[in-house]
Amino acid sequence: MTLRAKLELGGAVIMLALLAVLVAAWHGAHDDALKMEATIKAQREVMAEADKRQADRDAALKVSLSQLEDAKKRTQTPQEAVRALPSVIPLPQPIYLAPRPNPPQGSGNAAATGTSPAIPDAVIPAADLKPLYDFGIACQECKAKLATAEADRADDQVKLAALGKERDAAVTAAKGGRKWDRIKRAGKWFIIGAVAGAVAAKTAH
Question: Is residue 143 domain-resident?
Answer without folding.
Answer: yes
